[in-house]
Amino acid sequence: MRKIYLLFVFCFLILFSCKSDEHIDSVETESPVVNFNIDAVPYSKLSTYAFFKGDLKNLDPVAKVIPYEPASSLFTDYALKKRFIWMPNDVKASYDADDKSLNFPVGTVLIKNFYYNTIQPGNTTKILETRLMIKKSSGWIFAEYLWNDAQIEAELVTGTDFTSGSSKNITFKKENGDIITTDYRIPSETECYACHKLDNKPVPIGVKPQNLNGSYNYPNGLKNQLQKLVDEGYLQSYPSNIVSTVNYKDTSKPLDIRLRSYLDINCAHCHQDNARCDYRAIRLSFSQTTNLAKMGVCILADEPIDPSLERIITPGNPNKSVMHFRLSSVNENNRMPLLGRTIVHDEGVDLLKQWISSLNQNCP
């Protein structure tokens, strides 16, 4: 009788074990895959790419859609940004130079979402636009997506809408508590090209090793962003001695490095050789601004604005410096950057003012 009982228990355990294994094997694990056909993109809806899981507005990336953040961010009327990189299987980007965008393979998509989390009334979060840059065999193309008010979808802007651009009236609160109302500018294709043009070809701006050579807090913890791209199979390798930009908001860093980082991300893409403003006297890439003359210090203004503004940078005197005047202006004929902002970036102007005031050299 005891043997029969033990045999029964043994069979029961075997049966239970089999049932348990069967249950485990039947559990479906989420394995989302990006939908990308290079001959069919850009799609008419952002959701079609399947870059994000769950509610689209949460911008929760699926596997292999990698978030990134440059050391300093381009100012766009105080909009916040969430940026991602996606690449097809079995291809990798390569390193060219500290101050040159990574050399991405065909099929790469750079994803940049613009949003505010203090929209009034109520400090609500609202995504306004998502910009894609897609690398095709012929080069980079732009795809602009506008979000609906319900925040459930973003539609591709095409035809005359993308040719002329548009504006969206918003009211938001700044970190200092100021309430700002402005007509946020949705760029046209021409405006995108104006800033992203180099050698008459569209190129990315922020994805340079000098801007990505810092830590990002991924779901699994902090990691160097370039190393993350290597680990994900997105980047071949990178040198250990990259001369990097910094977060211009970081007051623990030297004032001149902070300003040079700010000018690099906000101004250098136009003020470089073979770019939109290459006819101007200044060159504002981080790698060049160790030379103060490249930043315009003591350099005579190359356009008539006001007799009191004789030099691009007048050491010790922001009010007699063209650069300070332009960054402080909202007039379309005078402001810089010309595109991407409708209001003054107070913190950027203050940083420039501090730096100019710290200069004590005499101009010849």
From TrEMBL:
Keywords: Signal. It comes from Chryseobacterium wanjuense. This is Repeat protein (TIGR03806 family). It comes from the Bacteria. The keyword Signal applies. Residues 1-20 form the signal peptide.
